Amino acid sequence: MRYRVLAVIVAAAALGVVAATAAASGKRANAHTLTVWLQVDAQNGWPEIVAAANSAFQSAHPGWDVNVQYQQWTDHLQKFDATIAGSDTPDVIEMGNTEMTKYMAAGAFANLGSVKSQFNNSSSWLGGLKASSTFNSKLFGVPYYAGSRVITYRSDLFRKAGYKTPPRTLSQFQSQLVKVGKMEKRKGFAPLYVGGEDWYSALSFVFDYGGSIATFSHGKWHGALDSKNSIAGLTAFKKFFTATQPKSSATLDGSAPFPYTVFSQGLTAANYGPAWYTCCTGKKFSKVVKQFVMPSHAKGKAMPGFLGGSDLAVPAQSGNRSEAVDWIAAFTSTASEKALEKKGNIPNATNLLGKSVNERAAARSWFVPQAKHWVDVENGNVLKTMLAQLLTGHLSVKQAATAASQNIEQTLNES
Questions:
Q1: pLDDT by residue (tens digit) across 211-257?
Q2: CATH ID of 149-306+371-412, from 3.40.50.880, 3.40.309.10, 3.40.190.10, 3.40.50.300
């Protein structure tokens, strides 16, 4: 689908840098370049939206080029750290919302509080994304887009098993999946496949049962995965996992394939993951792929889903802060956010939300602890290790949860 070029942004950000003017001859000067780091998701999923933002920015800033450099999630933090050390950072950087806190706490990003009003819908930003862009009550990022987690499934297999409407409870869904699994005789088939180390799915069960990852009180973080409610959620996850997929998906080395890859191979009836999974489930199943909100163990409710997503920040070392703000304003305009919504993402503000499955799933959501060392928990694979241990039987649910909880508490309280 083609998107109209975004309207030219109206004013330069009040950060004291004057935009370059056009050359007297009418030709563009090429002395100024704005460097933007985006994740490869944008390159593969919405290049038109990036191009529209670039066009809007360049119309308002004659003589400027935009150099968009696409990054991989696996190594972009290491690359960013290297640019900080070398005083050669990009002017704009996309960060996963769980990655923001460590860098905000370290002073790596410019304070954007004084220019917040220049971003469309800033008064209605999604709570989870706004929180991830804020540290010590100061704004260091701009919400980009969010993504909730839903069930992507093959409607043909569920209809064959006699199910025409989505389940209303977790137990009902599990029963449906078990029946579908018995019906399908293909070797290696899993009724539902999420990947054993997918902690986003497992922790949704934790929050559904009233548990949490960690709590903050008296100036200290306290691990909470070993609480009664959290263990109840992890126990329910293990039971659900065991009933609906093969043990081979619970690995210790991260070798489990992506869920949508398994789906495209015809080896599963459903995935629990981001709504954009529909992009990669295979042409063979394009006419039967549908989605619904993951049901809670409580009838009629949605299971709380992780509100993931991305924020955009201006590195403190950038010499083009005003221009960086202008580009972000173009890229997160209402038109841009609505275009992202059509791509299956959740726009960055509540007033832009529609009635899609993805957006309805965001009604009940959870987010990771707002601690500067949370990224170290993720990079240390604390949660993946816990799940691998309890799903493979190396440790009991309580033993694995206790070890993870102690590890998280120690990591989050590091100075």
A1: 999 998 888 999 999 999 999 999 999 999 999 976 555 555 566 78
A2: 3.40.190.10
